[in-house]
Amino acid sequence: MPISFDLPAGVEAQLRREHADVNQLAKEAALVGLYRQGHITQHQIAQSLDKTRIEIDELLQQHNVTENRAMISNPAEYHKALEDLRILEQRIAELEQEHPGDDKAFTKAGVRKMIATINEELAAFVQASVREGFSQLDEGRSVPAAEVFAKAKERIEMARRHRQA
Distance between CA atoms of 144 and 137, rounded to whole angstroms? Predict the structure, then answer.
């Protein structure tokens, strides 16, 4: 959906001098503003900008957005996060094979942080789902509450381990 608005000529000229793509800048600013107000999720920003979760985290940090809104708000996002987590865990395993003993590598630390963050998001979503009475997180099959809580506890522990690594 195209959205447009007018700016004073001086403001537009300044923005065009300072930024290569003013339209993209305005789109990002609008989406970040909507996120700050609680109208959209990080996942919706990612979809709108065709960016990854990690890129959205970076974008929000650039805009000084530090509040901890959940990225996972429905089962589809939950399953996408699980997929992202598998990819990140594969990448950290590859990095550990390529660079054994090099625990100080920025890339490995960054991947560990992303894994921890996704595990925390998954745990938060699972816990919120149980509170709301939603227990169909495993491809449509109903999951007993005890199993859901066990998954959340496991995710929290995995996040803790990755943050300590």
Answer: 10
Distance between CA 96 and CA 110 in Å, rounded? 13
Distance in angstroms (rounded) separating the CA atoms of residues 119 and 87: 13
List the one residue out of 83, 143, 86, 154 whose CA is nearest residue 120.
154
In the predicted structure, residue 96 carries a pLDDT above the cut 60: yes
User: Using only C-alpha atoms, what is the Rg of the chain?
Assistant: 19
Residue 97: both structure tokens together: 């094979």
Q: Is the pLDDT of residue 32 over 80?
A: yes
Please check whether residue 148 is in contact with residue 130, taking contact to mean a CB–CB distance below 8 angstroms.
yes
Q: Which residue has the tokens 């979760």?
A: 53
Higher pLDDT, 11 or 105: 11
Whole-number percent of the chain with pLDDT over 70:
67
pTM: 0.43
Beta-bridge partners for 138: 141
Greatest CA separation for the chain:
61
Nearest to 83 by CA among 52, 109, 37: 52
Using CA atoms, how far residue 160 sits from 66, 72, 118, 131, 137, in Å, is 20, 19, 11, 23, 22
